[in-house]
Amino acid sequence: MTVPSMTEFTPLTYEALTIGEEFVSDTLLVTPEDIETYAFAVGDHHPWFSGSSPFGGAVAHPTFAANQALRLRHSRYVVHAGLHAKMQFEFLEPIRVGMRVRSRGRVIDKYIRRGKQYMVTEFVTEDEAGTPLVRGQFTQMLIPA
Amino acid sequence: MALAPTLAVGHELPPLEKELTQRHIDAYSGVRTRSIHTDEAWARQKGFRTTLAQGMMSTAYVSEMMTRLLGAGFVRGGTMSVAFVQPVYAGDRLTVRGVVKELRPDGRATRLVVDVWCENQHGQKTAVGTASGLLL
Questions:
Q1: How far apart are the C-alpha atoms of B79 and A89, rounded to whole Å?
Q2: Tens-place pLDDT, residues B100-114
Q3: CATH code of domain B4-21+54-135
Q4: Domain locations in chain B?
Q5: Contact A44 B60 (CB under 8 A)
């Protein structure tokens, strides 16, 4: 019997971060309920989210999986608090109901500006076949403990 | 959805109005303890007057505005680059605005670039940037 690998979480600090380190999210099944909850959260009930669309069936809001990417660092670190400073997206393919999506990310920079600590992560959200759906990068400010 | 053919540089998009209640933030972020988004005591401890909306919620609003404008040409082929310049608090009311900045060829299509921003009920900009999509 093999022992399942366990994640060892450590507090996120500027010093602990390494440029080039990579993260992978869990896989998320895109359900109609999740799409509906997202639509409520952002107050956007576009008919394509619940019925037919030009893409053949229901699709999710383009930013639906953004939090999966934004929370990538939580797959390894205990994050005390942070602020989102910048966000970039390229919407390559629609996220469809019934897909299983996963995000991968890599820390591409960290810097200190005006005494504040920042990290920059590039990411891609893919379907099960590895087709890129959304690419982008985001900058997060670290709030020390 | 048939707005696109009338678009030209300087055209102002119909604004969106968004009320951000704590319930919306909870649904967006998921309720967690020790979260500046959903734990008011924690947010105050971190120096904020109350809980904050995730900056990402503003990208969803910009996405809605662009999808209303361009439809499938934003869902497949859209881009966005936004900086979050002021916190957005639970209870704030945002107006999402856009002005056409550029139209340029992109393969066989035309890419429409829009200056976008969100402003709160005090007229302060909370997010600024650009978004683009394809005129199909």
A1: 5
A2: 999 999 999 999 999
A3: 3.10.129.10
A4: 4-21+54-135
A5: yes
Q: For B122-136, write each residue's pLDDT tens digit.
A: 999 999 999 999 998
* Contact assessment for residue A52 and residue A93, using Cβ atoms and an 8 Å cutoff: no
Of B36, B72, B78, the CB nearest to A54: B72
| Contact (CB<8Å) A38/B28 | yes
Choose the closest CB to A91 out of B19, B27, B74: B74
Q: Which residue type, as a one-letter code, is found at position A1?
A: M
Question: What distance in Å separates the CA atoms of residue A48 and residue A95, rounded to the nearest whole number?
Answer: 11
pLDDT tens across B63-76, in order? 999 999 999 999 99
CA distance B135 to B5: 8
Which of B54, B64, B75 is the closest to A91 by Cβ? B75
Question: Using the beta-carbon criterion (under 8 Å), do A63 and B63 form an inter-chain contact?
Answer: yes
Q: How many domains does chain A have?
A: 1
User: Which residues in chain A have their CB less than 8 angstroms from residue B78's CB?
Assistant: 62, 89-91
Q: For A78, which residue in chain B has the nearest alpha carbon? A: B34
Residue recorded with tokens 């399942």: A4
Q: The domain spanning residue A24 has which CATH number?
A: 3.10.129.10
Establish if A4 belongs to a structural domain: no
Asked whether the whole model's pTM tops 0.80, one would answer yes
Give me the percent of chain A exceeding a pLDDT of 90.
91
Assess if residue A107 is contained within a domain. Answer: yes
